[in-house]
Write a structure and sequence with these properties.
Number of helices: 10
Number of domains: 2
Strand order of the largest sheet: 1-2-5-4-3
Distance between the termini: 25 Å
Order of helices and strands: EHEHEEHHEHHHHHH
Shape: globular
Strand content: 5-15%
């Protein structure tokens, strides 16, 4: 819990030695990265080109686009060793990049144009070109470039969990204004979220497999979580018994599954960028 006026920063995170901190571009600051390194941990984060200043081993400043333009094919990735200069130390890292597919590039450009229109600003040509790539920085040296890109992609699964917590559990809505009063509300909401997740796992374990003649549809964690949450909220005066819900869970999950969508199959899982 932090007070008003405090922003997101790696400096505010409790960091233990040998940890790997995954973060988006909002946390991309040299000072924050230096703080993590001083605690004996590593970072893997999305690069914010506007604030990321890197140097070669010879001390010359690196121009990002001069490196990225070497990646001309969809799905092509590259890696370069760079040096960051913090306030109290200098440290090496890996700059990893992936060229997006055409669909992801168009989507990135659409977001840029929408933001520029909303803020009444002009998007620089350099920003438009940078949007063609996924650009990451890590201080951990084990693993291939492809593994680094795939590992960062897992961050999106964590992001989806927080989106469910904010939307369905209303984790971001706390009717208090001081730390002491807010903490019980947050802890209570987290307890409900954990109970909901536990309920889903129990249902998956004890419910018999659903027998359905329709084609199998992908599961919908969002719908399952929402359904389980409603059952917990109605546990005192349930519309249907909790025992019946658990025994029928797999059949319920099948009914809640998403409809099939027409999607363009990509040759590589990494081609779609994570924002």
């Amino acid at each position: 819990m932090v007070g008003a006026g405090t922003g997101e920063s790696l400096n505010r995170l409790p960091v233990a030695p040998r940890e790997l901190i995954l973060a988006d571009a909002g946390y991309c600051s040299i000072a924050g990265i230096e703080h993590v390194r001083q605690q004996g941990a590593d970072v893997l984060l999305r690069v914010n080109p506007q604030s990321f200043v890197a140097f070669s081993s010879r001390g010359s400043r690196i121009v990002l686009l001069s490196l990225l333009r070497r990646l001309s094919r969809v799905g092509q990735h590259g890696e370069w060793r760079v040096v960051l200069q913090g306030q109290n130390s200098s440290f090496e890292g890996r700059l990893c990049a992936l060229r997006k597919n055409d669909r992801a590039i168009k989507e990135a450009h659409r977001r840029l144009h929408r933001r520029a229109s909303k803020k009444q600003m002009i998007t620089r040509a350099e920003t438009v070109e940078l949007a063609k790539y996924v650009l990451l920085f890590t201080t951990r040296f084990n693993g291939s470039t492809a593994q680094v890109l795939e590992f960062y992609r897992m961050r999106w699964q964590i992001e989806l969990v927080f989106k469910r917590l904010k939307s369905l559990v209303q984790l971001g809505h706390v009717p208090k204004h001081d730390d002491r009063s807010s903490r019980p509300w947050v802890y209570g909401k987290l307890l409900v979220a954990l109970l909901t997740q536990k309920l889903i796992r129990i249902g998956q374990d004890i419910s018999p497999a659903s027998i359905n003649s329709r084609p199998q549809r992908p599961p919908s964690p969002w719908r399952e979580f929402s359904f389980a949450l409603r059952n917990i909220q109605q546990a005192i005066e349930p519309d249907i018994s909790l025992e019946h819900v658990l025994l029928s869970w797999n059949e319920i999950a099948q009914a809640l599954a998403e409809e099939s969508r027409r999607r363009v199959l990509q040759p590589q899982l990494l081609n779609r960028a994570t924002v």
